[in-house]
Amino acid sequence: MIEIKDLTKTYGSFTALKSMSMDIAKGSVFGFVGPNGAGKSTTMSILATLLAPTSGTAKVGGFEVTEHPKEVRKLIGYMPDFFGVYDQFKTTEYLHFYGASYGLPRAEREKLIPQLLELVNLTDKADFYVDSLSRGMKQRLCLARCLVHDPELLILDEPASGLDPRARIEMREILKELKAMGKTILISSHILPELAEMVDEIGVIEHGQLIAKGKVQDIQNRMRAKRVLHIRVLDREAEAAAFLQDQPHVSMVLHDEQGIHVHFGGQDEDQSNLLLALIGSGYRIITYSEAQTNLEDVFLEITKGGDAT
Ligand SMILES: Nc1ncnc2c1ncn2[C@@H]1O[C@H](COP(=O)(O)OP(=O)(O)OP(=O)(O)O)[C@@H](O)[C@H]1O
User: Which of 87, 107, 201, 283 lies 20 to 30 A from 293 at CA?
Assistant: First the structure.
């Protein structure tokens, strides 16, 4: 659905995207993550045909964005990270306005708009002024607006930003429904654990370059090559920590009031052998567990460079 090849974007002397390449399969939900200023919005604006790349190509549904912008626009629904909602409109009028802009006949809009409002849980706000809606509601209305022309691809730039936890969950549920409807979704976010539940793949961007891409599980597994073990023993804790330091695959041992934390580079079998070695040496184990890595850890580990702004 999306093919990006050697995409570069410069703003004056500043290079926001550096020869970035990335493909996204049709029907997949792709999470685009990276620190502030990494280049997510720039990439999304180029895909949405709103910004011209400096060099390289970006294709949506096989259409190159600069050569066939009209075809691309039919295929995409774009939700920018910052949007206005024409406050003087009522919710229904607002969607009529956008539907009409896409050339949908009134009869079709009359049928479609109640369905869209239901999808984004705004049926009871159909006759309210947009101005009176909460931020979360406005964000859902903006999502409904992206859907009026039934696009195949949704490009959503931080759709959950600024929402409270409940509104975020609502947004996530709607995105799940859209995924079930077969839409391809490119979504950027800083709220990584929430993305993990719904995305098929993630791409991590930093300083305008894609530095990791793959299935959430694969990237997490890659991280697990550097697992941290949490061990508590009944007694002789300092002695156990010294013992662990000399064991295979152990790179670092930290010892604090919560117990012993072992940075471990081995695989499952090695981890099991380490436990056997401890027990074999008479240490009485209370806890032997692997600290969970989640998307947040993955993100922090991969983007060690920090804020790109
Ligand atoms: N119009 C512009 N003129 C000059 N620099 C720009 C312009 N737009 C973006 N940039 C710069 O390009 C870089 C990438 O910005 P972009 O908005 O794509 O990042 P982002 O990953 O979406 O960040 P955020 O998470 O903060 O939205 C930033 O350093 C930004 O300051």
Answer: 283
Which tokens sit at 281? 């040496």
**Residue identifier of the C-alpha nearest atom 29 of ligand 1:** 37
Q: State the CATH number of the domain containing residue 92.
A: 3.40.50.300
- Do 182 and 269 sit in the same domain of this protein? no
Mean pLDDT (the chain, rounded): 88
Q: Specify the ligand 1 atom closest to the Cα of 205.
A: 21
Return the axis-axis angle of helices 237-245 and 268-280, rounded to nearest 10°.
Answer: 130
Which residues constitute the domain of residue 140? 2-221
Residue 223 has pLDDT above 70, yes or no: no
**276 vs 218, residue with greater confidence:** 276
3-state secondary structure of 66: coil
Domain membership of residue 309 (yes or no) is no
Look at residue 309 in the predicted model and tell me its pLDDT: 39
pLDDT score at 293: 62
Pocket of ligand 1 (CB under 6 A): 11, 14, 16, 34, 36-42, 81, 309
Same domain membership, residue 167 and residue 37:
yes
Q: Is residue 308 part of a domain?
A: no
Find out whether 281 and 243 touch, Cβ atoms under 8 Å. Answer: yes
